[in-house]
Amino acid sequence: MEALEKMYGSLSLFSDINWKNVGLEFEMNFKDCSFPEYLQHKALEGDCPLYLFELAFYEFAYHELQNLKTEKISEKGFHLNPTNHFLSLEFDVARMLKDSESGKIEIHQRPHVLCLYKDLDGKNQSLEVNEQELNILQLLEDGPKKQFEPEQNELVSSLVKRGLILRE
């Protein structure tokens, strides 16, 4: 229970979560899923606010990045950064967490897709991606590409510069 509270500390800021009860229920009844999935299940049942499971997924992805390394690509072409974690969010959890640092606890609802990733310098990054960028990134899900359509080159260059796409 202490480990859950430590890893998902922001949940205490945005709710009056009872870590003892939540931890026991999670350990006893939800062994086959992650803690964020457990909260999603609880939210769908109406037992917790929807934004809590999104906060938990964000924190889970952020902590997972801590152990990942971005390695230099040896194969020629454009590659999807293997550390990318895409979160389709209904709440602006990054803004909520940033505001909470100054004591401002507010819920901001705004649908968007956020990508958490490590850049080539090993620093955690987050970037909101739009539909055009997602379409380009999806093209790389099945493996590297040697080139893109000419009209896509500017967007691809931008994604390379920001570290979402790696290029050799």
Describe this structure in words.
The protein contains eight helices and five strands; from the N terminus they run αααααββαββααβ. By secondary structure, it is α+β, with helices and mostly antiparallel strands. It folds into two domains: 1-67; 70-168, Alpha-Beta Complex (Outer Surface Protein A, domain 3), CATH 3.90.930.50. The strands form two sheets. It has a three-stranded antiparallel beta sheet. The protein has a two-stranded antiparallel sheet with strand order 1-5. Strand 3 (109-118) and strand 4 form a beta hairpin. Helix 4 runs antiparallel to helix 5. It is elongated, with a radius of gyration of 18 Å. It starts with a helix and ends with a strand. The mean pLDDT is 92.
What are the SSEs and their pairings?
Elements lengths: L1 H6 L2 H5 L4 H11 L5 H10 L5 H16 L12 E3 L4 E7 L1 H9 L7 E10 L5 E6 L1 H9 L13 H10 L2 E3 L1
Antiparallel strand pairs: 1-5, 2-3, 3-4
Helix pairs in contact: 4-5
Brief characterization of the structure:
This protein is 45% helix and 17% strand.
Can you give keywords for this protein?
168 residues; Outer Surface Protein A, domain 3; 3-stranded antiparallel beta sheet; two-stranded antiparallel ribbon; 8 helices; elongated
Strand runs, count = 5
CA radius of gyration is 18 Å
The total number of structural domains is 2
Q: What percent strand?
A: 15-25%
Query: What characteristic shape results from the CA principal axes?
Result: elongated
Question: If classified by CATH, what would the architecture of the largest domain be?
Answer: Alpha-Beta Complex
Largest sheet: 3 strands, antiparallel
> At the third CATH level, what is the topology name of the largest domain?
Outer Surface Protein A, domain 3
Q: Distance between the terminal alpha carbons, to the nearest Å?
A: 44 Å
The share of residues in helices is 40-55%
Written as H for each helix and E for each strand, in order along the chain, the element string is: HHHHHEEHEEHHE
Mean pLDDT: 92
Structural class: alpha+beta
What is the CATH class of the largest domain? Answer: Alpha Beta
Number of helices: 8
Q: How are the strands ordered across the major sheet?
A: 2-3-4
Give the uncertain stretches in residue-range form: none
